[in-house]
Amino acid sequence: MFNKNIKLVLAALVLGTAVWQFTESYIGNGIMLILLSLVFIFLYFKNEIILLAFLRLRKQDFPGAKKWLDKIKNPSASLVPKQEGYYNYLNGLMVSQTNMNEAEKYFKKAEKLGLNMDADMAMTKLNLAGIAMTKNRKREAEALLLEAKNLDKHNMLDDQIKMMKQQMKKMGQPRQQFGRSGRGGRKF
């Protein structure tokens, strides 16, 4: 994986070579080099490692996705801020199944850096609400659920939001005890 600035330098060099090919009347070579420079520019905005990790997640291969993400040694130097947000988002998704505290850190960092799509941000807020709910922070969970609902424009997370609201209602109810009667004796 290249540093994000190296990708721009490579794109500029290839584009300069394309212009030189045009001046030498090698039009086909120039067009091909322009297309090649567009690949470097695309990879500047969409990191190749994160794309490969998304493909692994799509196949439900969490260890494979984690292996790809571990190849990014220094995310702040290698990635633009939105890509770093997705890096933290993906790590949060994978870690959330084993360690809620670490997942919360990843999701909060992804929320702070921002994500390109509102649906991804809504999923981040929904995960943060679930973590807050498990830690008995009901007000924070309600606020995060409201934000997730507002960000979910196409109602893709509607069922999950309703289910989480029902679980929050159950959390607020006092627990009933069944079993022995209150008068101290056994009932036969």
The CATH homologous superfamily name of the largest domain equals Tetratricopeptide repeat domain
**CATH architecture identity of the largest domain:** Alpha Horseshoe
Say how many strands there are.
0
Mean pLDDT: 87
- By CATH, the topology of the largest domain is Serine Threonine Protein Phosphatase 5, Tetratricopeptide repeat
Summarize the main sheet: none
Give the helix tally: 10
Which CATH top level class of the largest domain fits? Mainly Alpha
Number of domains: 2
Uncertain stretches of 5 or more adjacent residues: none
Give the helices and strands as they follow along the chain.
HHHHHHHHHH
Distance linking N and C termini: 73 Å
**What best-fitting shape do the alpha-carbon axes yield?**
elongated
Strand content: under 5%
Gyration radius from CA atoms, angstroms:
25 Å
Write the SSE topology.
Blueprint: H1 4-23, H2 27-45, H3 48-58, H4 62-69, H5 75-78, H6 81-95, H7 100-113, H8 118-134, H9 138-151, H10 158-172
What does this entry show, briefly?
With 188 residues, the protein is mostly helical.
Keywords:
Serine Threonine Protein Phosphatase 5, Tetratricopeptide repeat; 0% strand; 2 domains; 73% helix; 188 residues; elongated
What does this structure look like?
It is a single chain. The protein has 10 helices and no strands. α8 packs antiparallel against α9 (138-151). The protein has helices at residues 4-23, 27-45, 48-58, 62-69, 75-78, 81-95, 100-113, 118-134, 138-151, 158-172. It has 2 domains: 1-45, no CATH class; 47-170, Tetratricopeptide repeat domain (Serine Threonine Protein Phosphatase 5, Tetratricopeptide repeat, Alpha Horseshoe), CATH 1.25.40. The chain is elongated, with a radius of gyration of 25 Å. The longest helix has 20 residues, at 4-23. With 188 residues, it is mainly alpha-helical.
